């Protein structure tokens, strides 16, 4: 980096303004923009809270909706479209995807994240990154890491144990870094076990660059840097937004007075220069944006994202010949995206009631409720519902009720909406509820509706997509990526959310989402992975091939047959388990899934799903590494975490765990180490100890097995004998 002065190197590491980096020497300025589900390029006033306007761009379904498609091919295409729009607006890096785990349904920003499960999050996030970057536009994998609540997000400390950190919260990040190589990673605002993410050397250097081999740029979340010098030393490359020259000067001074290693500044300047080179190559890919095409893609994506939660008596699809009362202000003013920094200015907006009208039938509309507290007479809505052949009631949360920067206090629908539904159900049994929300809702009395479509947030073309599903032009295939609990009190982090005096205790450990509900056998409203179709599917012929299971994993094969009377696509889920594990593990964990093609009635498709051996591993805190336990694993194939249809088992050759032997090792651990066991046995010459069980009986042996080696001194063993056993272990 000799071509740059100290001042220039420091200048490369911080923004020029809200959305751009500095042009330094031969390194041009770069533009970074939100994201994730549309390009939010601000040309006038800038802010990161979504208050000021931005250039029109296609508003695709936010992650909460798009994730429900479980479709990596579709998400890759959405990514490509986002890349083309970013390119068209001269954006070099699109700030997304958000891959934090939905730990608690109250997190205000869950709409921007894919799931409660790290496996599906990782697969979908990787598809998104690959899609955007295939156009020559960078991404920013965020928010790294453990940012699972919004309340007090710039100070709060996530107190988390190593297993949940690795097995739940970092797994998706690791997968995406390894398979899709995002140009940038955005470190989060919060602290992790006491240290700010931006200053966390373990996170940014040891893990991200060291263990995972990441070679891109670590950018701070906007305003996340409390101390730039400490952050650069920990591995931060780029502070955003532009802090002025203040922190550049701090970096220069710190190098000069020896408190910051110049190599750290060189590394970050080099990373930013390389990012600029990548971006320059990307800019060569000029692309013309076809917004009509992107709107159609947004509609396709939205229709794949809708989950049919319930369909009693095959109420859906509706016949276009019949009359429909459309009720609810969201039918007219749709709730289609989240608030805060991701707020996109859509190129157009499908109005659900218009789209339903366009799909045929006689449609009446009544507002039914308001989202701003102004009174609405519900008489019209109830009368319209009673007079029509069916009612479609749009319910949900208003934008102001959930957003970046704060969490929800509950998971309730507004009471007036619930009352309206109850009144409508009393006069119209053929009532379909369409839900719009960014975070999970308690269904309570909504569950009384005979049919429920869960749209979550569907983006600008959601209105058309809802019409497509209501009338059967699209057979729904979306699946929940988050469990719907019966009560908030049943949720895993209920007592530890959001924080107490800025501390968030991740007390539920690895038992997040369905892992929790299944382990505790808690009744739920709708399980993870659930979603109905207008047809039915049957699974058969499950086989598990394990050619080389010790190395790469196993392949599950099965046949999916459309046994109903309509064409449709299915999503097959594979869960694995290790029931006799030596550590606490959930009854099942998602380790594979696949979407079928659209299957005609009677048609079958053979599906094979590879299960990566790494996804069977747990994080072993004794040796600080991933361990695949040897032995039998359960393999379950299902249509949700609670609808397991086929099961089998597979034998896996595990990893060997050699524990270091010292005075604190138990006799059980000593006996598991052949050389140390031999040395221990030789200390009992008069009574050769081949096995504790033989010598002592099983119960005594179990008691003895838990005694630390060093404590034998208190029972008469000589110190030199203890030392000899420890030394013998080292030779093994
Ligand atoms: C958000 C980021 C966003 C950034 C820039 C922050 O407040 O947490 O997700 O990319 O602002 O708008």
Short description:
The protein is built from 21 helices and 26 strands.
Largest pleated sheet: 6 strands, mixed
Measured by DSSP, the beta-strand proportion falls in: 15-25%
Helical fraction equals 25-40%
Mean pLDDT: 95
- Sheet/helix structural class: alpha/beta
Distance between the termini: 47 Å
Features:
19% strand, globular, 26 strands, alpha/beta, 732 residues, five-stranded parallel β-sheet, single chain, binds beta-D-glucopyranose, six-stranded mixed β-sheet
Structure report:
The chain is an alpha/beta fold. It is 29% helix and 19% strand. Strands 9-14-13-12-10-11 form a six-stranded mixed β-sheet, sandwiched between helices. A hairpin with a 7-residue loop joins β18 (537-545) and β19 (553-562). One of its GO terms (molecular function) is beta-glucosidase activity. This is Exo-alpha-(1->6)-L-arabinopyranosidase. Keywords: Carbohydrate metabolism, Glycosidase, Hydrolase. Residues 570-641 form the Fibronectin type III-like domain.
